[in-house]
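STRUCTURE REQUEST FORM
Protein name: Class I SAM-dependent methyltransferase
Source organism: Gordonia rubripertincta
Requested output: structure tokens
Priority: standard
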Amino acid sequence: MDQSEQIAAEQATRWNGPSGRAWIENQDLLDRLYRPVEDLLVGYVTDVSGSRVLDVGCGTGSTTLAVSRAATGTAVGVDISEPMIAVARARAAAEGVSADFVAADVQTHQFSDAPFDTVISRFGVMFFSDPVAAFRNLHQACAMSAHLRMIVWRAPGASDIMVAAERATASLLPDLPPRPPSVPTAPGQFAFADPELVTPILEAGGWRDITVDPLDVELSLPTDDMLRYITTFGRVGVQLPLLDETTRARVLDQVSKALTAFADGPDARYPAACWLVSAQA
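Status: completed
Returned output:
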């Protein structure tokens, strides 16, 4: 097994295991938090009149379902996590929405139906072991005039709510692991944070007219829900289960105090630093 295959196997284990379960357990919270990002992508699909849309890294299907409700045509969601795809299918059935979902690795899956005219992603493309292979495969699954629009994370700045939580708890968590490098060969939240690395990947995959534009999206949740988000999905949250009860309580107290800097009435609100990546096939 070469390095790329090993990374792919690790990602499959992660998203079919603990990360997938955490996402499912907090589905409603994450859908509410990322609704502004979803709205941007749905607006784009309707602007270009996408009739066959592929949502990459669809998770539990919120954006795919939103596209299916808003646009005429077909919306397909694909994700490597079988448990999350199962939830997405159940949601579609419960809502009576005609979206399709595929549990597959985008790097290798052969999309056999009619070609897609629009590809979108909400934070779903940063976990490939071989991103060039993934975008080449997506290109092959698309019509010649297809559009690509995806939103990925920029490197977090001082105003990022996760950074604030990490700083507030630094004395209590001296062994907090360093952030992984912002390079596509290290799959993770910020793998596409360097725009100078994103364009060559898409070009090698066959895409053209590539633009990478900064996008600040205001995200908010009720303060208690934001605390749950930070202490479940952030680097601080990863450490919490490893702490004794007293230290855990002190960490939660410090994060709660840090959230006061983001208070907007009953909510915690902050501008999330993203890239809006656009291309054509």
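Reviewer notes: The two ends are 32 Å apart (CA to CA). The chain has a mean pLDDT of 92.
Form closed.
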